[in-house]
Amino acid sequence: MDVNATELGNAFVETCFGKYQGTGWFLYLTALCFLFFLLRKKEEWRTFFGLYGGFLLLVVFNPLVIWRIVALLGLDDEYYRFLWLIPVVPVLAYAGTKLTELAGKRWGKKIGGLCLAGTACLFLAAGTPFFSRSLSLAENIYKIPDEVIEICEIIRADCPKKEPCVAADFDLDVLINQYAPDLKLILSYRAIADIRELEAQGDYIDEAPSRLYHVLIEETPHDEGYLIYALSEGNVDYIVTHRGTPVREYILESQCRLIAELDQYCIFRVELEQEA
Fold first, then answer.
1. Range with lowest mean pLDDT among 55-69, 171-185, 204-218
2. Which neighbouring-strand residues pair with 241?
3. What is the largest CA-CA distance in the chain?
4. pLDDT in tens, 139-188
């Protein structure tokens, strides 16, 4: 995520929540549930969520603390991984179940009524939930966009190799790797992280991944042989880019042929001329 803890300060957590999960409401409700569990005296609730929830509230959810830790350790881009540790679905489901059990008591009915009213207000404020960006149905059993599956199948059908090498941006690489691990991805997360780290330090290594990174991710065209060298050295068979990329013509001029144009992506086959 493109965030900077030092610049955002106390707003760092709120910004990350929004980038990670839309409005961040599910994370805020989870934090409220953790606080509810801590205040309750029932040992069962404390056993399940007490220490774990308390730690998350004091560190991950605490805007006064976490941004300083992130800024000190340089974890601006890694903070969102802590959000993976938050069991949003089981916590909300468990809390909802416990609230329904309290409905039989007089004060429990009042709490239940307030929760229902608050939920209704939340839905109304956020818009119709079935058309909300925070709630979408999976397009297939793999839970990745159909177009990504189509890209993989086009490449598989077109290439005689068992493991063709593909160059694409990081977001697309992650999805391709979930569906088609047989496709070799030259711009992996580790490769991109290493390139960014080296360039931040003022170093530059003129290798195939670095050149592909500058062309496909930074979308910067270079001289005619710049990309051709990277495709040859990296043994790249296909390039996948967004349809609106400004380096489209540059890719076509670098001995690549457009073989498929989908709604959002273009697929290029690398056809390097053999040296005599």
1. 55-69
2. 266
3. 89
4. 667 778 889 999 999 999 999 988 999 999 877 888 888 889 899 999 88
Query: What is the distance between the alpha carbons of residues 228 and 36, in angstroms, rounded to a whole number?
Result: 60
Distance of CA 134 to the CA centre of its chain: 14
Please give the Cα distance from 131 to 181 (Å, whole number).
33
Are residues 266 and 249 in contact, defined by beta-carbon separation less than 8 angstroms? Answer: no
Q: How many CB atoms lie within 10 A of CB 166?
A: 25
Q: Give the number of other Cβ atoms within 10 Å of residue 180's Cβ.
A: 19
How far apart are alpha carbons 196 and 183 in whole angstroms?
Answer: 24
Extract the tokens encoding 65: 């603390």
Assess contact for 2 and 20: CB atoms under 8 A.
Answer: no
What global pTM score does this model have?
A: 0.55
